[in-house]
Design brief:
This protein has 257 residues and is mainly β. The protein has helices at residues 7-24, 30-40, and strands at residues 43-54, 59-72, 75-86, 89-102, 109-122, 125-141, 146-161, 173-188, 191-198, 212-222, 225-236, 238-255. The two termini are 33 Å apart. It has a 12-stranded antiparallel barrel with strand order 1-2-3-4-5-6-7-8-9-10-11-12. Strand 6 and strand 7 (146-161) form a beta hairpin. It has one domain (7-255): monomeric porin ompg (Porin, Beta Barrel).
């Protein structure tokens, strides 16, 4: 599945629409606001770009669109599309995912099932890979402002070299391993700071011997728009052996009436 959408154009278009919608809103009573918040939570969309540099100083870039919407009272669905560019190759890689998320039970833990697919053809990379992932994401309140994160799961992977296969793979070179993310979050009045160590994030899992440290900031820009940003340092087996550095920047919109 080769993706030729202009994500930057989509980003600007949605930003303008979000600003117009925000300024058109009028104040409501608290009870009405809560009802509207539930409606707005029914659909959101994350739009962001990543800049990645490896230990050799090579750069690549990608654009990501990730809508999330409610399909049942206790179940949400999230899909994602990624298009990447590298070293003069404007179609270096494309990723997609389909994910199901339960509600948070006891306001603590939700379960996630995800299929993500990678199609890569840049440098020495030329392969297709499908990841079947299941995990539990847990929030542990520490105080009014602080919250611990303890997430753990498992992934099964199928990979074929020298193949660009759009459909999910169910055969080929296979592997499986655990995945995790542990961290701490500080809640602010209009956002949150988070620091984490892990092996998975929005799209794809990493090998256990290639985890990352990450610092992220979410911040309310306006009522329906939130800044999404992070810096990630991924290393190879030992923290003093760098593998990749990531800078992610975008906006998450809550849409609805």
């Amino acid at each position: 599945m080769k993706i030729y959408l202009s994500f930057v154009f989509v980003f600007l278009l949605i930003s303008i629409a979000g600003l117009i919608t925000t300024h058109a809103q009028t104040s409501r009573a608290d009870s009405t606001k809560k009802a509207n918040d539930k409606k707005k939570d029914a659909f959101s969309i994350l739009v962001y770009t990543r800049t990645i540099s490896n230990s050799k100083g090579d750069f690549r870039f990608d654009q990501n669109v990730v809508p999330n919407f409610k399909i049942l009272k206790w179940l949400r669905m999230e899909v994602g599309i990624r298009h990447g560019e590298a070293a003069g190759n404007l179609d270096a890689y494309s990723h997609y995912k389909v994910e199901f998320q339960t509600k948070s039970f006891f306001n603590r833990t939700r379960l996630i099932m995800r299929l993500s697919d990678n199609i890569e053809s840049y440098g020495v990379s030329n392969f297709s890979r499908t990841n079947y992932l299941g995990l539990a994401e847990t929030k542990i309140p520490v105080s009014q402002r602080w919250e611990a994160i303890a997430n753990i799961g498992y992934v099964v992977i199928y990979k074929q070299n020298h193949v660009n296969e759009d459909a999910p793979l169910f055969f080929g070179d296979s592997g499986q391993h655990g995945i995790y993310k542990f961290g701490i979050k500080y809640k602010m009045k209009k956002g949150a700071l988070e620091a984490a160590l892990g092996t998975y994030d929005v799209f794809n899992p990493y090998q256990l011997n290639q985890p990352f440290y990450q610092v992220g900031l979410d911040y309310d820009l306006w009522e329906r728009g939130k800044l999404y940003s992070y810096y990630r340092y991924q290393y190879n087996q030992s923290v003093d052996i760098p593998l990749n550095s990531f800078l992610g920047l975008g906006v998450r919109f809550r849409l609805g009436r």
